[in-house]
Amino acid sequence: MIEVKYENGLKKDITKESYQFKKERYVVLRDIIPKDMIKFVYDCWLRWEKSDKLSQVIKPEEDIIFNSPEDTLNRSSAVFENAPWSVALQQYLKPKLEDIIDVELIPTYAYTRKYERNAFLKAHNDRPSCEFSVTLPIAYFTDDHKPWKIWVKNDKDYIGVKDDRYISSITQDIPIRERKDIGVELEPGDILVYQGPNVLHWRDRLVGKHSYNIFLHYITYNNDIYKKYGDIYKFDNRESIYHDYERSKEKQREDTDSYVESLPEYPQMINNYLKFKREV
Ligand SMILES: [Fe+2]
């Protein structure tokens, strides 16, 4: 534990993981999901993928992030939003993350994506529903048998930065040997937890057959966006974590995103943890 003193004078012992997440905007938690559970999830996914009926909801994705290079298009597919096994993992991890990071989490959505050879995740930051984000591999098949790196640029808050050419120029366009950013390698069972809107994140081309990945998103209970628009951000404006999206409600959430992101105070409205300085 690390004893920290907050700006308002409060002293508290927090875990080193909580300290790192709040200060450095990301933390890697190793071996937090038991291998049996990873296999259970992978079996569910393979059954879904091989079924003529069930696989109808696995949709090819042309361009994951707007304006990706031409030769990387159509290299991934996503199981319809909130696949059952991803929702179950989102629920499984919620109390553990709340304990370790010392936050109160509301699930927003879960995403389930299979990347194929040469897939590419263009550098970006996330929308408000991804305030507290988790990414994890279920299985990967790379040519060198090493994890497919996810890169993180965490030197400052990038919330509100949307110019994709600028973002590329300070991230993916820089040759790997010259990068000062963090290349995170995750084995199945490990997770990367990061402040989605604040951290630029990306993956270079996948040199391998494929990679099965899950993304879990939450919003924190105590932020200003949640206090004002909690009804819209809770479950990403679905009835519950088990429900589908309704088109009109999805539109309402998108409109709220646009409004919130246009506010001058937006950068302070999420991931605004009490400021602390290290004591020891
Ligand atoms: Fe993202």
Describe this structure in words.
By secondary structure, the protein is of the alpha+beta class. The protein has a single domain (2-278), classed as q2cbj1_9rhob like domain (Jelly Rolls). 28% of the residues lie in helices and 28% in strands. It is built from seven helices and 14 strands. The strands form three sheets. Strands 3-11-8-13-6-5-4 form a seven-stranded antiparallel β-sheet. Strands 7-12-9-10 form a four-stranded antiparallel β-sheet. A hairpin with a 4-residue loop joins strand 1 (2-6) and strand 2 (11-14). The mean pLDDT is 93. Fe (ii) ion (FE2) binds at residues 124, 126, 196, 201.
Provide a brief overview of the structure:
The chain is an alpha+beta fold and 280 residues long. It has helices at residues 16-24, 35-50, 84-101, 164-169, 224-233, 247-262, 266-269; strands at 2-6, 11-14, 26-29, 58-61, 76-79, 105-116, 121-124, 132-142, 150-153, 182-184, 191-194, 200-203, 208-220, 276-278.
